[in-house]
């Protein structure tokens, strides 16, 4: 059946106490709404309408690259029923419409498929969940035959002191799927006769029962966590934790060794080859790929990087926008910045920073050094404290260090400059002119010694 989706995202999210609209609050590095939308995408809906209101422009801007989305503005925000009526306007009759909130980020595509498979012209499908503490949620009221007859909001049950309803533990997840044409008509009949003076989407359930639609219910396989909504920073942190653990378990199921699955954070996509081992407290952001047998030490932050097979990243490294070749050894305390492209067996040691530079096979920079805008040949040995002076205050220039060069400690290579193949640069040199292959170049003050020199003495008063 043709399926369309309405995502309710107009609410203020007052309890977040934040300037940022609730659906833009990040979970695992992505806005909450992005998670719901990812789950929805698996249904291949013919239309996805996001109902925006509070912070509408910000929400739209955050998803402006998504050509598949339509935004509908709800102003003022008169409740979930009103929001759905706004969202259904651009959707054509004939199919079914799935409704969900933009603040239930852990909902699984499988659950949405299961739910939407139940809905058709004559069936209203409702996702419910049995929870230990249903406080705040709408309650699913069934008749003696077990059929759903209505949903009663927590606040309304309280106002009516309706203890029987308050005692129901089956709650409304606010995720439902209905025949579009019927839903459109039902939404026009909603009235704000309730404790919150709003148009409740949940009131369409009683209408469906009266109209003789079948109300089919199903539950999420993932239980309460899957349908948990985020209303404040405490719930946000709890879901972050749950989501990270799900990702950690997925990695372990694929054979990745995590020294402690509670101490890894993946804010994006981490793809791993076989026998990868990751020590504690590592953060992965964006798209990260680790080849077979890669080992990542403790406390590394790795973003948008590809690390080839057998490479070892020692603890405390920061890697961003870099590629690391096979069997390379990085760190501890190394920083690889965007455009660092390291070939096979490159060694980058402690307190070495590499930016926008290529290092060919077997090149080494083991201590306290900077390589920026450099092209480094095979087997180069780049000494401790050496730096490329790549920036003249206005423009960046390249340094070319050809194969088998040795750069001594504490050298400054003032770009643009080329160090010819096999050459040696004496420690402490400031190199401003290119050097010939095979040459030893020393550019520093000559050493002078004065024998038996006496230090000045203090004159006594
Ligand atoms: C809603 C349900 C409740 C259910 C609960 C599950 C109703 C009346 N109640 O209550 O039965 O148990 O979700 O979490 O539907 N929104 C708009 N426009 C509005 C109001 C809300 O877009 O005018 C959006 C919000 O941004 C949010 C979603 O709709 O994403 C749900 O609204 P919220 O106020 O959180 O409803 P709940 O009180 O949680
Ligand atoms: Mg809510």
Describe what you observe in this structure:
- With 461 residues, the chain is of the alpha/beta class.
- The chain has two domains: 3-227, Spore Coat Polysaccharide Biosynthesis Protein SpsA, Chain A (Alpha-Beta Complex), CATH 3.90.550; 233-441, Hexapeptide repeat proteins (UDP N-Acetylglucosamine Acyltransferase, domain 1), CATH 2.160.10.
- The protein is 19% helix and 32% strand.
- The chain contains ten helices and 36 strands.
- The protein has a 22-stranded parallel β-sheet that branches. It has a seven-stranded mixed β-sheet with strand order 5-4-1-6-10-7-11, sandwiched between helices. It has a three-stranded parallel β-sheet with strand order 29-32-35, with no helix packed on it.
- Helix 3 crosses helix 7 (180-188).
- The chain is elongated.
- It starts with a strand and ends in a 20-residue tail after the last strand.
- The mean pLDDT is 97.
- The chain binds uridine-diphosphate-N-acetylglucosamine (UD1) and magnesium ion.
Per-chain topology:
Layout: E1 3-9, E2 26-27, E3 30-31, H1 32-41, E4 47-52, H2 56-62, E5 69-73, H3 80-88, E6 96-101, H4 109-118, E7 123-130, E8 139-142, E9 148-152, H5 154-159, H6 163-166, E10 170-179, H7 180-188, H8 204-210, E11 214-218, H9 223-227, H10 233-253, E12 257-258, E13 264-272, E14 277-278, E15 282-290, E16 295-296, E17 301-307, E18 312-313, E19 318-320, E20 323-324, E21 329-330, E22 335-336, E23 341-342, E24 347-355, E25 358-359, E26 364-372, E27 374-376, E28 381-382, E29 387-389, E30 399-401, E31 406-407, E32 412-414, E33 417-419, E34 424-425, E35 430-431, E36 440-441
Parallel strand pairs: 1-4, 1-6, 4-5, 7-11, 12-14, 13-15, 14-16, 15-17, 16-18, 17-19, 17-20, 18-21, 19-22, 20-23, 21-24, 22-24, 23-25, 24-26, 25-27, 26-28, 27-30, 28-31, 29-32, 30-33, 31-34, 32-35, 34-36
Antiparallel strand pairs: 2-3, 6-10, 7-10, 8-9
Helix pairs in contact: 3-7
Bound molecules: uridine-diphosphate-N-acetylglucosamine (UD1) and magnesium ion.
């Amino acid at each position: 059946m043709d399926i369309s989706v309405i995502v309710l995202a107009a609410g203020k999210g007052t309890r977040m106490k934040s300037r940022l609209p609730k659906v833009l609050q990040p979970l695992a590095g992505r806005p909450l709404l992005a998670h719901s939308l990812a789950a929805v995408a698996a249904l291949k809906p013919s239309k996805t309408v996001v109902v925006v209101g509070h912070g509408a422009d910000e929400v739209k801007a955050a998803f402006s690259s998504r050509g598949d989305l339509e935004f509908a503005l709800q102003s003022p925000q008169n409740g979930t029923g009103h929001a759905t009526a706004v969202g259904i306007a651009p959707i054509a009759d004939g199919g079914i419409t799935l409704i969900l909130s933009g603040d239930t980020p852990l909902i699984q595509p499988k659950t949405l498929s299961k739910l939407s498979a139940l809905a058709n012209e004559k069936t209203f499908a409702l996702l419910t969940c049995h929870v230990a503490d249903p406080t705040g949620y709408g309650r699913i009221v069934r008749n003696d035959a077990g059929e759903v007859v209505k949903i009663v909001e927590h606040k309304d049950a309280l106002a009516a002191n309706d203890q029987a309803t308050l005692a129901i533990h089956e709650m409304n997840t606010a995720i439902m799927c209905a025949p579009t044409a019927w839903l459109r008509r039902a939404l026009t009949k909603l009235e704000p006769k309730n404790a919150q003076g709003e148009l409740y989407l949940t009131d369409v359930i009683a209408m469906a029962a009266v109209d003789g639609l079948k109300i089919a219910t199903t539950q999420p396989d993932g239980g309460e966590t899957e349908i948990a909504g985020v209303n404040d920073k405490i719930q946000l942190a709890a879901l972050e934790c749950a989501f990270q653990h799900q990702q950690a378990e997925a990695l372990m199921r694929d054979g990745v060794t995590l020294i402690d699955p509670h101490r890894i954070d993946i804010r994006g996509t981490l793809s791993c080859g076989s026998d990868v081992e990751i020590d504690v407290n590592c953060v992965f952001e964006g798209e990260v790929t680790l080849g077979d047998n890669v080992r990542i030490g403790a406390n590394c932050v790795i973003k948008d990087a590809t690390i080839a097979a057998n490479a070892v990243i020692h603890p405390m490294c920061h890697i961003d926008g870099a590629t690391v070749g096979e069997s390379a050894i990085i760190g501890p305390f190394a920083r690889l910045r965007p455009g660092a492209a390291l070939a096979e067996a490159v060694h980058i040691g402690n307190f070495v920073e590499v930016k926008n530079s290529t290092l060919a096979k077997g090149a080494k920079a083991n201590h306290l050094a900077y390589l920026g805008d450099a092209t480094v040949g095979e087997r180069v040995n780049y000494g401790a404290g050496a730096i490329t002076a790549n920036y003249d205050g206005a423009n960046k220039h390249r340094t070319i260090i050809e194969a088998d060069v040795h750069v001594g400690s504490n050298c400054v290579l003032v770009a643009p400059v080329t160090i010819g193949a096999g050459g040696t640069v004496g420690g402490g040199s400031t190199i401003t002119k290119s050097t010939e292959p095979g040459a030893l170049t020393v550019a520093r003050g000559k050493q002078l010694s004065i024998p038996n020199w006496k230090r000045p003495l203090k004159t006594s008063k």
